[in-house]
Amino acid sequence: MSSRVPQVPLDRWFSSERAMGLGASILIGLVTVTTWATAWSDGYSYHTLKTYGDDPGRLDEADLISGSLGIVSALALLSAAVVFIVWLWRVRWNAEMFCRGEHRHTRGWVIGCWLVPVVNLWYPKQVVDDIVAASDARTDPHTPALQDVPGTRLVWAWWLTWVSGLVTGNIVQRGVLAGASQLGDLRTNVILSSVSALFTTGAAVLAVILIQRVDELQTQRPWVPWWAAGTPHNGFQPPAR
């Protein structure tokens, strides 16, 4: 790992991200609702095919409901993802002010870690781990590397449930794209959709708790930058913007 010397960011100051975190939490809750709605639509499609398999009108109605809810669910997920990542980007800035410790990934990875296949299974957790560590008042402001700070059970629980929901959800999506039309295939989709919704709900609850936890760490900790920590700062003023 490189030993970059962090630069003092004299062009900015701390900022409370409570409003952005609240927005992300509301949208995450909406994603949970749409996930369960999608699971219900899978069950409805299965019931319709099983009961009215010879009625094209009923089947078309089930397909319309499923497709419409799929679009709504995708839009909700996209909105929540954008706001959550913006929140993550901003609290990362705060974290860099609290502690000089080197993060495992550069700031660009705060966005990129969600988009790059394979690494998106663990990079986001490391990004969040480092933000939590740097924001915690118990972490020495002059800690050289944040990866040396033990992770929290909250982040572990959130990430494991999120990945589990993501994997099961992708399996369901592949079945939908393949045009599953047999009762057995649809029944499997119903089961996996329900399992995915359960994991997604757990991840959503933990994500909201995580957002609140980071907000508490960053707003309750004195807003003293790492380069001023340990020195008298009575009357300390933030740098000019």
Label this structure with key terms.
241 residues; mainly alpha; elongated
Explain this structure to me?
By secondary structure, the protein is mostly helical. It contains six helices and no strands. The protein has helices at 18-51, 56-98, 109-112, 123-135, 153-177, 183-220. Helix 1 (18-51) packs antiparallel against helix 6 and helix 5 runs antiparallel to helix 6 (183-220). The radius of gyration is 22 Å and the shape is elongated. The two termini are 32 Å apart. 33% of the residues are buried. The model is unreliable at 233-241 (pLDDT under 50).
What are the SSEs and their pairings?
Blueprint: H1 18-51, H2 56-98, H3 109-112, H4 123-135, H5 153-177, H6 183-220
Helix pairs in contact: 1-2, 1-6, 2-4, 5-6
Structure summary:
The protein is mainly alpha-helical and 241 residues long.
User: Kindly state the mean pLDDT as a whole number?
Assistant: 86
- Count, helices: 6
In this structure, how is the largest beta sheet organized? Answer: none
How many DSSP E strands? 0
- Please state the overall shape, judged from the principal axes of the Cα atoms: elongated
Q: Supply Rg.
A: 22 Å
